[in-house]
Amino acid sequence: MNPRTDPAEDVLLQHPWRPVTIDGCQLLAKSWFGETAYRILLTDMQCVWEERMDAVDIESRAQGLNRRLRASVRAFFSHLCEVARPCLSGGGRTGDEAQISVRRWEDGNITLRLKSELAGLPFYWEFHCSPAPVALVCVQLVRPLLAMSRLLQRQVEHLEDLLVRKDEEIQDYRENGATLSRERLQTDIFDKQPYTEDFIEK
Questions:
Q1: Which of 12, 101, 176, 187 could form a disulfide with 23 if both were Cys (CB 3.0 to 4.6 A apart)?
Q2: Measured between alpha carbons, how far is 153 from 58 in angstroms, rounded to an integer?
Q3: Which residues form the XLF-like N-terminal domain (predicted)?
Q4: What is the rounded CA–CA span in Å between residue 173 and residue 134?
Q5: In this prediction, what percent of the chain has a pLDDT beyond 90?
């Protein structure tokens, strides 16, 4: 049984980590935007930060940061998605030249401050990201990396076995009189042990 109850958790897991550069800071980002909710993860490979917001939180923050604007939460969120998604997916700035900056706090939190324009007026947004719990880091970063590492290891082992069988097949052809039409195509017999030792050393 899966102990996680947040449906966004599994959706976020399906999204890739993307390299982004924000205000000169190189990060990896993963984000999910729903209808009126979002989740974002950021890491500099020393710390992982997260923020999750629902419609009520988004409306409250949007009105607090944009007192001159009067719009529905869906309008705020639609514009936020339009300008924030490219910044968090490595796409850079949008056509309206949205500006985004990063501030690190002494308590370990970070804030992404975004400025753009909505209906001819300045639009401000802040992502307040706090250090993610270890369980979330394991689910979203460590476990996928370990799974991919194991998958690649199995693929290497399969290719090693395939090379050994190919050498046996070629040797059988030679023993039955087959010859190469071009000498440059001749290859050395694959020796698995030194290859494996070299791989582990590197």
A1: 101
A2: 44
A3: 16-130
A4: 56
A5: 46
